[in-house]
Amino acid sequence: MRKRLTISAALAAALLLTNPAGAATGAVGASGAGDAYYPQYGNGGYDVSHYDLRLKYQPATDQLEGTATILATTTAALSRFNLDFALTVQEVHVNGRKARFAATGEHELEITPAAPLGKGERATVVVRYSGVPSTVSAYGFTAWQRTPDGGVAAGEPESAWWWFPSNDHPSDKATFDVSVLVPDGTQAISNGALVSQSSRLGWTRYNWRQTKPQATYLATLAVGRFELNTSVSDGGIPVITAYSRDLGDNAGAARASLERTGEITDWLSTQLGPYPFATVGGYVPNTKPGYALETQSQVYYSPRIFGAGSNTSVVVHELAHQWYGDSVSLDRWSDIWLNEGFARYAQWLWSEHENEGTAQELADWVYSSRPADDPFWTVLPGDPGPDNQFHPAVYDRGALAVQAIRNAVGDEAFFAVLRGWPAEHKYGNATVEDFRRYAERVSGKPLGDLLHTWLYTGGKPAAGTSPSLKA
Ligand code: ARG
Ligand code: ZN
Protein backbone atom coordinates (compact mmCIF):
# COMPACT_ATOMS: atom_id res chain seq x y z
CA MET A 1 0.00 0.00 0.00
CA ARG A 2 2.10 2.84 -1.22
CA LYS A 3 1.49 6.15 -2.89
CA ARG A 4 4.69 7.02 -4.67
CA LEU A 5 6.31 5.25 -7.53
CA THR A 6 9.85 5.79 -8.59
CA ILE A 7 10.00 4.49 -12.15
CA SER A 8 11.28 7.29 -14.31
CA ALA A 9 9.25 7.93 -17.43
CA ALA A 10 12.49 8.48 -19.35
CA LEU A 11 13.80 5.08 -18.32
CA ALA A 12 10.54 3.45 -19.32
CA ALA A 13 10.70 5.17 -22.70
CA ALA A 14 14.31 4.11 -23.21
CA LEU A 15 13.43 0.50 -22.55
CA LEU A 16 10.57 0.64 -25.01
CA LEU A 17 12.91 2.04 -27.68
CA THR A 18 15.57 -0.60 -27.17
CA ASN A 19 13.17 -3.53 -27.05
CA PRO A 20 14.02 -5.43 -30.28
CA ALA A 21 10.59 -6.99 -30.65
CA GLY A 22 9.01 -3.56 -30.49
CA ALA A 23 6.41 -4.67 -27.93
CA ALA A 24 6.03 -2.92 -24.58
CA THR A 25 7.90 -5.04 -22.03
CA GLY A 26 7.85 -2.58 -19.17
CA ALA A 27 10.51 -0.78 -17.22
CA VAL A 28 12.99 -1.88 -14.61
CA GLY A 29 11.65 -1.19 -11.10
CA ALA A 30 13.80 1.16 -9.04
CA SER A 31 16.06 -0.46 -6.42
CA GLY A 32 15.06 2.13 -3.82
CA ALA A 33 11.85 3.92 -2.79
CA GLY A 34 13.62 7.28 -3.06
CA ASP A 35 13.87 8.05 0.66
CA ALA A 36 16.31 10.94 1.22
CA TYR A 37 17.86 9.22 4.28
CA TYR A 38 18.04 5.65 2.92
CA PRO A 39 17.91 5.78 -0.89
CA GLN A 40 18.22 1.99 -1.33
CA TYR A 41 15.51 1.02 1.14
CA GLY A 42 12.27 -0.10 -0.46
CA ASN A 43 11.78 -0.46 -4.18
CA GLY A 44 9.80 0.99 -7.06
CA GLY A 45 7.05 -0.28 -9.32
CA TYR A 46 4.79 -2.30 -7.03
CA ASP A 47 2.75 -2.24 -3.88
CA VAL A 48 2.62 -5.19 -1.45
CA SER A 49 -0.70 -6.06 0.23
CA HIS A 50 0.30 -9.23 2.13
CA TYR A 51 3.33 -11.24 3.27
CA ASP A 52 2.89 -14.94 4.03
CA LEU A 53 6.04 -16.28 5.69
CA ARG A 54 6.33 -20.01 6.29
CA LEU A 55 9.60 -20.61 8.11
CA LYS A 56 11.64 -23.19 9.99
CA TYR A 57 14.31 -22.20 12.52
CA GLN A 58 16.89 -24.30 14.33
CA PRO A 59 18.16 -22.47 17.47
CA ALA A 60 21.22 -24.71 17.81
CA THR A 61 22.65 -23.60 14.45
CA ASP A 62 20.80 -20.32 13.78
CA GLN A 63 19.61 -21.84 10.51
CA LEU A 64 16.51 -20.10 9.09
CA GLU A 65 14.77 -21.43 6.00
CA GLY A 66 11.44 -21.21 4.34
CA THR A 67 9.18 -19.58 1.81
CA ALA A 68 7.87 -16.05 1.51
CA THR A 69 4.77 -15.59 -0.60
CA ILE A 70 4.28 -11.92 -1.40
CA LEU A 71 1.03 -10.58 -2.82
CA ALA A 72 1.64 -7.37 -4.75
CA THR A 73 0.11 -5.16 -7.42
CA THR A 74 2.30 -3.41 -9.95
CA THR A 75 2.15 0.37 -10.19
CA ALA A 76 3.96 0.33 -13.56
CA ALA A 77 4.62 -2.15 -16.33
CA LEU A 78 7.69 -4.11 -15.16
CA SER A 79 10.25 -6.26 -16.92
CA ARG A 80 12.20 -6.57 -13.69
CA PHE A 81 11.82 -5.52 -10.03
CA ASN A 82 13.64 -5.71 -6.70
CA LEU A 83 13.01 -6.96 -3.19
CA ASP A 84 15.20 -6.05 -0.21
CA PHE A 85 16.82 -9.18 1.20
CA ALA A 86 20.19 -10.36 2.56
CA LEU A 87 19.84 -14.17 2.95
CA THR A 88 20.49 -16.78 0.23
CA VAL A 89 17.72 -17.41 -2.29
CA GLN A 90 17.18 -20.84 -3.86
CA GLU A 91 14.23 -20.23 -6.12
CA VAL A 92 11.76 -17.53 -7.17
CA HIS A 93 8.39 -17.91 -8.87
CA VAL A 94 6.28 -15.02 -10.15
CA ASN A 95 2.65 -15.81 -10.96
CA GLY A 96 3.42 -19.51 -10.96
CA ARG A 97 6.40 -19.34 -13.32
CA LYS A 98 10.04 -19.71 -12.44
CA ALA A 99 11.78 -16.32 -12.47
CA ARG A 100 15.43 -15.39 -12.90
CA PHE A 101 17.01 -13.70 -9.89
CA ALA A 102 20.29 -12.17 -8.76
CA ALA A 103 21.60 -10.82 -5.46
CA THR A 104 23.03 -7.33 -6.02
CA GLY A 105 24.24 -4.49 -3.81
CA GLU A 106 24.11 -4.80 -0.02
CA HIS A 107 20.59 -6.17 0.30
CA GLU A 108 18.92 -6.27 -3.10
CA LEU A 109 17.26 -9.22 -4.80
CA GLU A 110 16.68 -8.51 -8.49
CA ILE A 111 13.85 -10.54 -10.02
CA THR A 112 13.15 -10.98 -13.74
CA PRO A 113 9.79 -12.67 -14.28
CA ALA A 114 9.40 -15.12 -17.19
CA ALA A 115 6.96 -12.67 -18.74
CA PRO A 116 6.84 -8.90 -18.14
CA LEU A 117 4.13 -7.67 -15.80
CA GLY A 118 1.56 -5.14 -16.93
CA LYS A 119 0.71 -2.01 -14.98
CA GLY A 120 -1.90 -2.62 -12.29
CA GLU A 121 -1.41 -6.39 -12.54
CA ARG A 122 -1.49 -8.66 -9.53
CA ALA A 123 1.78 -10.46 -8.87
CA THR A 124 2.30 -13.42 -6.56
CA VAL A 125 5.99 -13.67 -5.78
CA VAL A 126 7.23 -16.84 -4.09
CA VAL A 127 10.77 -16.75 -2.70
CA ARG A 128 12.38 -19.89 -1.29
CA TYR A 129 15.38 -19.10 0.90
CA SER A 130 17.72 -20.11 3.70
CA GLY A 131 20.62 -18.75 5.70
CA VAL A 132 22.27 -18.18 9.04
CA PRO A 133 21.09 -14.61 9.74
CA SER A 134 23.67 -13.81 12.44
CA THR A 135 26.48 -14.37 9.92
CA VAL A 136 25.04 -12.09 7.23
CA SER A 137 26.03 -8.44 7.29
CA ALA A 138 24.93 -5.49 5.18
CA TYR A 139 26.46 -2.02 5.45
CA GLY A 140 28.82 -3.58 8.00
CA PHE A 141 26.29 -4.72 10.56
CA THR A 142 23.86 -7.50 11.39
CA ALA A 143 20.39 -6.64 12.65
CA TRP A 144 19.62 -10.21 13.69
CA GLN A 145 20.42 -10.70 17.38
CA ARG A 146 21.57 -14.16 18.36
CA THR A 147 20.58 -15.27 21.88
CA PRO A 148 21.74 -18.37 23.80
CA ASP A 149 18.42 -20.08 22.99
CA GLY A 150 17.56 -18.61 19.57
CA GLY A 151 17.45 -15.32 17.71
CA VAL A 152 15.53 -12.05 17.38
CA ALA A 153 14.74 -9.67 14.51
CA ALA A 154 13.94 -6.22 15.94
CA GLY A 155 15.62 -3.10 14.59
CA GLU A 156 14.82 0.31 13.15
CA PRO A 157 14.99 1.12 10.34
CA GLU A 158 16.65 -2.18 9.40
CA SER A 159 15.67 -5.68 10.42
CA ALA A 160 13.54 -7.23 7.67
CA TRP A 161 16.41 -8.18 5.28
CA TRP A 162 17.70 -10.69 7.80
CA TRP A 163 14.55 -12.75 7.87
CA PHE A 164 12.23 -12.10 4.92
CA PRO A 165 12.33 -10.48 1.46
CA SER A 166 10.28 -7.29 1.34
CA ASN A 167 9.64 -3.84 -0.01
CA ASP A 168 11.44 -2.42 3.01
CA HIS A 169 10.06 1.09 3.42
CA PRO A 170 7.27 2.23 5.79
CA SER A 171 5.38 3.77 2.85
CA ASP A 172 4.40 0.24 1.73
CA LYS A 173 2.42 -1.40 4.54
CA ALA A 174 0.88 -4.87 4.34
CA THR A 175 -0.82 -7.55 6.43
CA PHE A 176 1.22 -10.56 7.63
CA ASP A 177 0.86 -14.26 8.33
CA VAL A 178 3.99 -15.63 10.00
CA SER A 179 4.19 -19.39 10.55
CA VAL A 180 7.32 -20.71 12.23
CA LEU A 181 8.41 -24.28 12.92
CA VAL A 182 10.76 -24.65 15.91
CA PRO A 183 11.93 -27.62 18.00
CA ASP A 184 9.47 -28.72 20.72
CA GLY A 185 10.12 -26.79 23.94
CA THR A 186 11.06 -23.64 22.01
CA GLN A 187 8.60 -20.84 21.23
CA ALA A 188 8.28 -18.53 18.21
CA ILE A 189 6.85 -15.02 18.61
CA SER A 190 5.70 -12.63 15.93
CA ASN A 191 3.12 -9.85 15.50
CA GLY A 192 -0.61 -9.95 16.16
CA ALA A 193 -2.58 -12.95 17.38
CA LEU A 194 -1.24 -16.45 17.97
CA VAL A 195 -3.89 -18.13 15.83
CA SER A 196 -2.79 -21.71 16.49
CA GLN A 197 0.08 -23.94 17.45
CA SER A 198 0.61 -27.65 16.88
CA SER A 199 3.34 -30.25 17.33
CA ARG A 200 4.49 -33.29 15.42
CA LEU A 201 7.77 -35.09 14.70
CA GLY A 202 9.50 -33.16 17.49
CA TRP A 203 8.70 -29.73 16.02
CA THR A 204 6.08 -27.15 17.01
CA ARG A 205 4.51 -24.75 14.52
CA TYR A 206 3.39 -21.29 15.68
CA ASN A 207 0.97 -19.40 13.45
CA TRP A 208 0.86 -15.63 14.00
CA ARG A 209 -1.45 -13.23 12.17
CA GLN A 210 -1.37 -9.44 11.81
CA THR A 211 -4.64 -8.35 10.22
CA LYS A 212 -3.89 -4.61 10.09
CA PRO A 213 -1.38 -3.00 7.69
CA GLN A 214 2.12 -3.14 9.13
CA ALA A 215 5.39 -1.51 8.05
CA THR A 216 8.17 -4.01 7.35
CA TYR A 217 10.45 -2.68 10.14
CA LEU A 218 7.62 -3.29 12.61
CA ALA A 219 7.49 -7.00 11.76
CA THR A 220 9.34 -9.02 14.38
CA LEU A 221 10.42 -12.62 14.88
CA ALA A 222 11.78 -14.07 18.09
CA VAL A 223 12.63 -17.69 18.76
CA GLY A 224 13.75 -18.95 22.15
CA ARG A 225 12.57 -20.56 25.35
CA PHE A 226 9.75 -18.25 26.44
CA GLU A 227 6.93 -18.29 28.93
CA LEU A 228 3.83 -17.08 27.07
CA ASN A 229 0.91 -15.49 28.98
CA THR A 230 -2.47 -14.32 27.76
CA SER A 231 -5.07 -12.10 29.43
CA VAL A 232 -7.70 -9.51 28.52
CA SER A 233 -7.62 -5.82 29.49
CA ASP A 234 -10.57 -4.07 31.17
CA GLY A 235 -11.13 -2.45 27.78
CA GLY A 236 -11.50 -5.88 26.19
CA ILE A 237 -8.17 -6.05 24.38
CA PRO A 238 -6.45 -9.48 24.33
CA VAL A 239 -2.95 -9.16 25.85
CA ILE A 240 0.00 -11.45 25.08
CA THR A 241 3.22 -11.19 27.09
CA ALA A 242 6.30 -13.39 26.79
CA TYR A 243 9.45 -13.69 28.88
CA SER A 244 12.64 -15.50 28.14
CA ARG A 245 13.18 -18.17 30.81
CA ASP A 246 16.68 -16.79 31.19
CA LEU A 247 16.25 -13.15 32.33
CA GLY A 248 18.22 -13.52 35.54
CA ASP A 249 17.96 -10.60 37.95
CA ASN A 250 15.79 -8.64 35.49
CA ALA A 251 12.96 -11.20 35.44
CA GLY A 252 10.87 -9.61 38.21
CA ALA A 253 11.15 -6.04 36.95
CA ALA A 254 10.39 -7.11 33.37
CA ARG A 255 7.23 -8.86 34.52
CA ALA A 256 6.22 -6.01 36.85
CA SER A 257 6.40 -3.70 33.81
CA LEU A 258 4.92 -5.76 30.97
CA GLU A 259 2.08 -7.16 33.06
CA ARG A 260 0.72 -3.58 33.05
CA THR A 261 0.46 -3.63 29.24
CA GLY A 262 -3.35 -3.97 29.27
CA GLU A 263 -3.87 -1.28 31.90
CA ILE A 264 -1.54 1.12 30.07
CA THR A 265 -3.17 0.42 26.71
CA ASP A 266 -6.57 1.21 28.19
CA TRP A 267 -5.19 4.44 29.71
CA LEU A 268 -3.54 5.44 26.41
CA SER A 269 -6.89 4.91 24.70
CA THR A 270 -8.27 7.74 26.86
CA GLN A 271 -5.48 10.03 25.59
CA LEU A 272 -4.93 8.93 21.98
CA GLY A 273 -8.28 7.38 20.97
CA PRO A 274 -9.34 3.74 20.48
CA TYR A 275 -6.50 1.20 20.35
CA PRO A 276 -6.00 0.43 16.63
CA PHE A 277 -5.08 -3.28 16.68
CA ALA A 278 -6.78 -6.57 17.58
CA THR A 279 -4.23 -7.61 20.22
CA VAL A 280 -1.54 -5.95 22.32
CA GLY A 281 1.54 -7.30 24.02
CA GLY A 282 5.26 -7.36 24.56
CA TYR A 283 8.12 -9.80 24.84
CA VAL A 284 11.52 -9.83 26.55
CA PRO A 285 14.13 -12.15 25.00
CA ASN A 286 17.60 -12.49 26.49
CA THR A 287 19.29 -10.03 24.13
CA LYS A 288 22.11 -7.66 25.14
CA PRO A 289 21.73 -4.18 23.53
CA GLY A 290 19.55 -1.92 25.67
CA TYR A 291 16.64 -0.70 23.61
CA ALA A 292 12.98 -1.31 22.96
CA LEU A 293 11.12 -1.23 19.68
CA GLU A 294 7.44 -0.67 18.94
CA THR A 295 7.08 -3.86 16.84
CA GLN A 296 3.42 -3.79 15.89
CA SER A 297 1.07 -4.97 18.64
CA GLN A 298 3.90 -7.12 20.10
CA VAL A 299 6.58 -4.81 21.50
CA TYR A 300 10.23 -5.84 21.75
CA TYR A 301 11.99 -4.99 25.06
CA SER A 302 15.60 -5.79 25.88
CA PRO A 303 16.14 -7.02 29.47
CA ARG A 304 18.61 -4.18 30.17
CA ILE A 305 15.68 -1.74 30.19
CA PHE A 306 14.62 -3.36 33.47
CA GLY A 307 18.06 -3.30 35.06
CA ALA A 308 17.06 -0.76 37.74
CA GLY A 309 13.59 -2.10 38.51
CA SER A 310 10.25 -1.75 36.81
CA ASN A 311 9.96 0.69 33.91
CA THR A 312 6.36 1.50 32.98
CA SER A 313 7.51 4.66 31.19
CA VAL A 314 9.15 2.62 28.41
CA VAL A 315 5.99 0.52 28.14
CA VAL A 316 3.98 3.74 27.71
CA HIS A 317 6.47 4.94 25.06
CA GLU A 318 6.31 1.77 22.96
CA LEU A 319 2.55 1.42 23.30
CA ALA A 320 2.03 5.09 22.33
CA HIS A 321 3.88 4.21 19.11
CA GLN A 322 1.06 1.80 18.27
CA TRP A 323 -0.94 4.97 17.43
CA TYR A 324 1.98 7.24 16.51
CA GLY A 325 4.19 5.26 14.14
CA ASP A 326 2.46 1.92 13.70
CA SER A 327 -1.15 2.74 12.80
CA VAL A 328 -0.15 6.15 11.40
CA SER A 329 3.23 5.53 9.77
CA LEU A 330 5.94 7.69 8.31
CA ASP A 331 5.99 8.31 4.59
CA ARG A 332 9.67 9.32 4.78
CA TRP A 333 12.23 8.64 7.51
CA SER A 334 13.09 12.32 8.00
CA ASP A 335 9.66 12.79 9.65
CA ILE A 336 10.72 10.63 12.63
CA TRP A 337 9.49 13.39 15.00
CA LEU A 338 5.93 12.21 14.28
CA ASN A 339 6.90 8.94 16.00
CA GLU A 340 9.39 9.83 18.70
CA GLY A 341 8.21 13.31 19.71
CA PHE A 342 4.73 12.00 20.47
CA ALA A 343 5.83 8.74 22.10
CA ARG A 344 8.06 10.78 24.45
CA TYR A 345 5.20 13.20 25.10
CA ALA A 346 2.96 10.25 26.07
CA GLN A 347 5.60 9.38 28.71
CA TRP A 348 5.23 12.92 30.07
CA LEU A 349 1.45 12.51 30.24
CA TRP A 350 1.98 9.22 32.10
CA SER A 351 4.33 10.96 34.54
CA GLU A 352 1.55 13.47 35.18
CA HIS A 353 -0.96 10.61 35.66
CA GLU A 354 1.43 8.88 38.10
CA ASN A 355 2.01 12.10 40.04
CA GLU A 356 5.70 12.20 39.13
CA GLY A 357 5.75 15.63 37.49
CA THR A 358 3.46 17.27 34.93
CA ALA A 359 4.24 17.47 31.20
CA GLN A 360 4.77 21.22 31.63
CA GLU A 361 7.22 20.64 34.49
CA LEU A 362 9.15 18.07 32.46
CA ALA A 363 9.24 20.43 29.47
CA ASP A 364 10.59 23.24 31.63
CA TRP A 365 13.16 20.86 33.12
CA VAL A 366 14.43 19.71 29.69
CA TYR A 367 14.56 23.33 28.53
CA SER A 368 16.43 24.66 31.54
CA SER A 369 18.78 21.71 32.05
CA ARG A 370 20.19 22.04 28.50
CA PRO A 371 22.46 25.10 28.26
CA ALA A 372 22.47 27.04 25.00
CA ASP A 373 25.87 25.60 23.99
CA ASP A 374 24.70 21.98 24.47
CA PRO A 375 25.09 20.20 21.08
CA PHE A 376 21.58 18.90 21.83
CA TRP A 377 20.24 22.13 20.33
CA THR A 378 22.06 21.62 17.02
CA VAL A 379 20.08 18.49 16.07
CA LEU A 380 16.85 19.35 14.26
CA PRO A 381 14.00 17.05 15.37
CA GLY A 382 12.24 17.73 12.05
CA ASP A 383 15.26 16.71 9.96
CA PRO A 384 17.90 15.07 12.19
CA GLY A 385 19.67 13.17 9.40
CA PRO A 386 20.05 9.38 9.25
CA ASP A 387 22.89 9.34 11.83
CA ASN A 388 20.84 11.23 14.41
CA GLN A 389 17.45 9.67 13.83
CA PHE A 390 17.28 8.46 17.44
CA HIS A 391 19.24 11.32 19.03
CA PRO A 392 17.84 12.55 22.40
CA ALA A 393 16.92 15.82 20.66
CA VAL A 394 14.41 13.98 18.45
CA TYR A 395 12.73 12.69 21.60
CA ASP A 396 13.11 15.55 24.12
CA ARG A 397 13.20 18.62 21.90
CA GLY A 398 10.55 16.77 19.87
CA ALA A 399 8.35 16.58 22.97
CA LEU A 400 9.08 20.25 23.73
CA ALA A 401 7.60 20.99 20.30
CA VAL A 402 4.47 19.07 21.30
CA GLN A 403 4.23 21.03 24.57
CA ALA A 404 4.67 24.26 22.60
CA ILE A 405 1.71 23.25 20.39
CA ARG A 406 -0.33 22.47 23.51
CA ASN A 407 0.38 25.88 24.98
CA ALA A 408 -0.36 27.63 21.69
CA VAL A 409 -3.75 26.00 21.08
CA GLY A 410 -4.96 25.25 24.61
CA ASP A 411 -5.83 21.91 26.20
CA GLU A 412 -9.18 21.36 24.55
CA ALA A 413 -7.89 21.72 20.99
CA PHE A 414 -4.61 19.99 21.88
CA PHE A 415 -6.25 16.79 23.13
CA ALA A 416 -8.67 16.88 20.19
CA VAL A 417 -5.62 16.87 17.90
CA LEU A 418 -3.82 14.19 19.92
CA ARG A 419 -6.86 11.89 19.63
CA GLY A 420 -8.00 13.00 16.18
CA TRP A 421 -4.72 12.55 14.27
CA PRO A 422 -4.52 8.76 14.73
CA ALA A 423 -8.15 8.50 13.58
CA GLU A 424 -7.58 10.80 10.59
CA HIS A 425 -4.79 8.61 9.17
CA LYS A 426 -5.62 5.24 10.75
CA TYR A 427 -3.59 2.39 9.14
CA GLY A 428 -2.04 4.85 6.70
CA ASN A 429 0.94 7.13 6.19
CA ALA A 430 1.39 10.83 6.79
CA THR A 431 3.96 13.64 6.84
CA VAL A 432 4.75 16.49 9.24
CA GLU A 433 3.11 18.84 6.70
CA ASP A 434 -0.07 16.76 6.93
CA PHE A 435 0.14 17.08 10.72
CA ARG A 436 0.56 20.85 10.60
CA ARG A 437 -2.45 21.25 8.32
CA TYR A 438 -4.55 18.93 10.49
CA ALA A 439 -3.61 20.63 13.78
CA GLU A 440 -4.25 24.06 12.27
CA ARG A 441 -7.66 22.95 10.99
CA VAL A 442 -8.73 21.50 14.36
CA SER A 443 -7.32 24.32 16.48
CA GLY A 444 -7.92 27.23 14.14
CA LYS A 445 -4.40 28.49 15.05
CA PRO A 446 -1.49 28.98 12.64
CA LEU A 447 1.39 26.67 13.70
CA GLY A 448 3.94 27.19 10.91
CA ASP A 449 6.23 29.57 12.85
CA LEU A 450 6.13 27.47 16.00
CA LEU A 451 7.01 24.24 14.15
CA HIS A 452 9.70 26.06 12.21
CA THR A 453 11.29 27.16 15.50
CA TRP A 454 11.01 23.88 17.37
CA LEU A 455 11.60 21.37 14.56
CA TYR A 456 13.65 23.02 11.86
CA THR A 457 15.81 25.74 13.44
CA GLY A 458 19.16 25.04 15.11
CA GLY A 459 20.07 26.62 18.45
CA LYS A 460 18.17 26.92 21.72
CA PRO A 461 14.94 28.79 21.08
CA ALA A 462 14.74 32.07 23.04
CA ALA A 463 12.84 32.09 26.34
CA GLY A 464 10.04 33.96 24.57
CA THR A 465 9.43 30.87 22.44
CA SER A 466 9.86 28.44 25.32
CA PRO A 467 6.87 26.17 25.85
CA SER A 468 6.58 27.71 29.33
CA LEU A 469 5.05 30.83 27.89
CA LYS A 470 1.38 30.31 27.20
CA ALA A 471 0.40 31.90 23.89
N1 ARG B 1 11.65 3.55 18.01
C1 ARG B 1 12.57 2.99 18.98
C2 ARG B 1 12.18 3.64 20.30
O1 ARG B 1 12.21 4.81 20.46
C3 ARG B 1 13.99 3.34 18.65
C4 ARG B 1 14.92 2.20 18.64
C5 ARG B 1 16.26 2.62 18.09
N2 ARG B 1 17.29 1.70 18.40
C6 ARG B 1 17.81 0.83 17.50
N3 ARG B 1 18.75 0.04 17.88
N4 ARG B 1 17.38 0.79 16.27
O2 ARG B 1 11.75 3.00 21.20
ZN1 ZN C 1 10.29 5.55 20.26
Give a brief description.
This protein has 471 residues and is of the alpha+beta class. It contains ten helices and 23 strands.
What do you see in this structure?
The protein is an alpha+beta fold. The protein is built from 10 helices and 23 strands. It has an 8-stranded mixed β-sheet with strand order 6-5-9-3-2-12-15-14, with no helix packed on it. A 5-stranded mixed β-sheet has the order 17-18-19-21-20, covered by helices on one side. It has a 4-stranded mixed β-sheet with strand order 1-4-8-7. Helix 5 packs across helix 7 (392-409) and helix 8 (411-424) crosses helix 9 (432-443). The structure holds arginine (ARG) and zinc ion. Arginine binds at residues 155-156, 291-294, 317-318, 340, 390.
How do the strands line up in the largest sheet?
Answer: 6-5-9-3-2-12-15-14
Count of individual helical segments: 10
Structural class: alpha+beta
Low-confidence stretches: 2-24
Taking Cα atoms only, what radius of gyration do you get, to the nearest Å? 23 Å
Present as ligands are:
arginine, zinc ion
Strand content range: 25-35%
Shape: globular
SSE arrangement:
Blueprint: H1 9-18, E1 27-28, E2 46-58, E3 63-74, E4 78-84, E5 88-94, E6 97-98, E7 100-104, E8 108-112, E9 122-131, E10 144-147, E11 150-153, E12 174-183, E13 187-189, E14 193-200, E15 203-214, E16 221-224, E17 226-232, E18 238-244, H2 251-258, H3 261-272, E19 280-284, E20 292-293, E21 299-301, H4 312-320, E22 329-330, H5 337-353, H6 359-369, H7 392-409, H8 411-424, E23 429-430, H9 432-443, H10 448-456
Parallel strand pairs: 1-4, 2-12, 18-19, 19-21, 22-23
Antiparallel strand pairs: 2-3, 3-9, 4-8, 5-6, 5-9, 7-8, 10-11, 11-16, 12-15, 13-16, 14-15, 17-18, 20-21
Helix pairs in contact: 3-4, 4-5, 5-7, 6-7, 7-8, 7-10, 8-9
Arginine binds next to strand 20 and helix 4.
Enzyme class: hydrolase
GO biological process, one term: proteolysis
Signal peptide: 1-23
